[in-house]
Fold CRISPR-associated protein Cas7.
Amino acid sequence: MTRVYGVIGIKAKMANWNADFTGRPKSTSNGDIFGSDKALKYPMKKMWENEGKKVLFIKSWKDEKGSIVPNQLGERYKLLFNDIDKKTETKEVMNNLFKAIDVKNFGATFAVEGQNISITGAVQFGQGFNKYDDTNIEIQDILSPFTDSKAEEKGKEAKQSTLGTKITVDEAHYFYGFSINPKNYDEYKTLLGSEFQGYTEADYAEFKKVALVSATAYSTNSKFGCENEFALFLTCKDEECYLPDLSDYIKFDSQKREIDLSDLEKLIEGKYASVEVYFNPFKLSLKTSLSRFNIFTQEKL
């Protein structure tokens, strides 16, 4: 397969798509709100895990002397594959790593005793910037049903339950550019033998599926209200097609909730074999001459 470029759009309404360590939506030093690539990959990996596929880089737990603690990387590998020690051949480890669907797509840094492997993933994301002009950060007070357990330690009498906060945005629209370069794995075809086929159309189909629905499918207290609302997939016409971050060429009208792809269409003219644009036709309007699909039903409009 040839290179693929695209954009994934995530809407957040009274939700917090990607919080920093203070609980506020992540932002740059000049105040622009964005979501990290990790925030986008996590629901993709959870969806694959829920489908029973091998996912290496995701938190899992073990019982250690009565305490529940996260597994180490080597222990997670052992859960999915075989035991690993200093005598395990690197070729065997690499073959196993590529059997994990998250590694096959996003790559890996695998450092355990006796192994130090770095794989640049075929799929690479940028950071997802919010293009909505009027985003406000909302802070809600939450009343806990319990008193402060540390009040007595501080010499105080706890008579009232404690307060907490929940931080969301009223509305935001994040757009992530991405690229898929199957050639990233060409050298491994020689090293690992015929068992390894590189990045295949089947791998791309798995990625495309989660790119369309995983944020919508993933629901937590802070993520309820986050959903996939837009996706664009461009397959290059030939090997000499190199494109920048396509999310920079998408215009978003905050008043009309309208996505305008006219600049992007000029950029990609004559460079693609196919382009598919998925969007939420109930909440968004879309200005484009490219093929349009309903992101929920995936039917052509």
